[in-house]
Amino acid sequence: MIRVQNVRKSFYQGKLESKVLKGVNIDIKKGEFVAIMGPSGSGKSTLLQLLGGLDVPDDGTIKIDQQTIEKMKEKERTIFRRRNIGFVFQNYQLLHNLSVEENIAFPLHADGKLNQEGRQRISEMIEAVGLVGFEKNRVSLLSGGQQQRVAIARALVNEPRVLLADEPTGNLDRAKAEEILALMVSFHRKHTQTIVMVTHDIFAAGFADRIILFKDGGIERVISRKEDDYAEYLANFMA
Questions:
Q1: Are 53 and 81 contacting, i.e. CB atoms less than 8 angstroms apart?
Q2: 50 contacts: CB under 8 Å, gap ≥ 6
Q3: Is residue 120 part of a domain?
Q4: Structure pTM?
Q5: Non-local CB neighbours of 87 within 8 Å, separated by 6+ positions
Q6: Could you give phi then psi for residue 159, rounded to 5 degrees?
Q7: Number of domains in the chain
Q8: DSSP 8-state secondary structure symbol assigned to residue 161
Q9: For tag attachment on the chain, is the N or C end more exposed, with fewer CB atoms within 10 Å?
Q10: Above 90 in pLDDT, residue 121?
């Protein structure tokens, strides 16, 4: 589903170059749940932006379902992103003056799909994330966990091929974080949803099939929950 080949990305402050990604290679299968971990500044969030087509690499190739992201024009990337990529952010990024239902409907409205079938899809997503009865509530009146549920429903209402989550539990306590992660896992298993999640939290990463450990702009190691030294290695890596 996702292939990242020799991807490099730098940012500049004047003439000063900061190399953020230094030749990254990743393959992610359809229906896989992958967590990306690493210290601040290691390049994990930059990679997520590139996967979502919010930016393009300086060098290398990113393919999503055989579509080469960096070869698209900006308008093409926007349309591809809207139809194929769902985003979930740490700060929810909801429209607070709108209701739960209106927030979830927003991607369908933007893509001209707010028809009878689209409205049925909205109802299904509200039920899937456990917010039946809250449809008309303004999201500003909801708890953090409920707002993140709205964000997940909005991200998935268009049935994207890939869900990208950037610290989706960063603003939640452990109990609410576990609820959100369990919800993501349920979509992953029930709908074979491909998920790439950036997190600094070992607890959150433990819900993924694989963990890609980033350090200094490159991959330090790829580790599975099944490996014997999984917990000890993660603890030492993030220390």
A1: yes
A2: 7, 9, 21, 56, 57, 62, 69
A3: no
A4: 0.91
A5: 52, 93, 155, 163, 164, 165, 166
A6: 55, 55
A7: 1
A8: S
A9: C
A10: yes
